[in-house]
Amino acid sequence: MIRVFFREGTLLLLFMLFLPSPTWGYRPFISTDAAVAGLKEMEIELGYLNLERTEGENTLIIPQLVVNYGIARNLEVVGEFEVEKPLDEDLELVDPALSLKTVLREGILQEKNGVSIAIETSLLLPSTVQGERKFGFETMGIFSEKLSPFIFHINIGGGVDRVETSPFAVWGLIVEFPVNSKFRLVGEVSGEGIREEVASNSGLLGFIWKSTRPNVFVDAGIRKGISGETLDWMFTTGLTFAFALPGVSPVKPSPSMRKVTHQGL
Question: 55, 228 in Cβ contact below 8 A?
Answer without folding.
Answer: no
